[in-house]
Specification:
Strand order of the largest sheet: 1-2-3
Largest sheet: 3 strands, mixed
CATH superfamily of the domain at 31-93: Trypsin Inhibitor V, subunit A
Oligomer: single chain
Number of helices: 1
CATH architecture of the domain at 31-93: 2-Layer Sandwich
CATH class of the domain at 31-93: Alpha Beta
Structural class: alpha+beta
Distance between the termini: 48 Å
């Protein structure tokens, strides 16, 4: 009986989600889960010159005619560009 309870507890523990990673900068400001404020300096920059290694994981650089998935991820940074490839906006979605 105890072995069965232990096995059940072990299986339930495996289903628990891992805690969210803690950022060294502390919690993000309210409404800015993707920390877009940290990248405001990119507005007006040539998107082709952005060092993607300096961007958070899952960041997307989106042109005016680019197709993107419609899944909402408020922690994902989206860098929007104009037809000339210049960064016009930073959004969390």
């Amino acid at each position: 009986m105890r072995a069965g309870l232990f096995a059940a507890a072990l299986l339930l523990g495996a289903c628990a989600s891992a805690p969210a990673p803690v950022s060294p900068e502390g919690p993000p400001p309210a409404g800015d889960l993707c920390r877009s404020a940290n990248f405001r300096h990119l507005i007006g920059a040539d998107a082709g010159a952005i060092d993607r290694a300096s961007l958070p994981p899952r960041t997307r650089i989106i042109g005016p005619n680019d197709a993107v998935t419609m899944d909402l991820r408020e922690d994902r940074l989206n860098i929007l560009t104009d037809a000339n490839g210049r960064v016009t906006e930073l959004r969390c979605f």
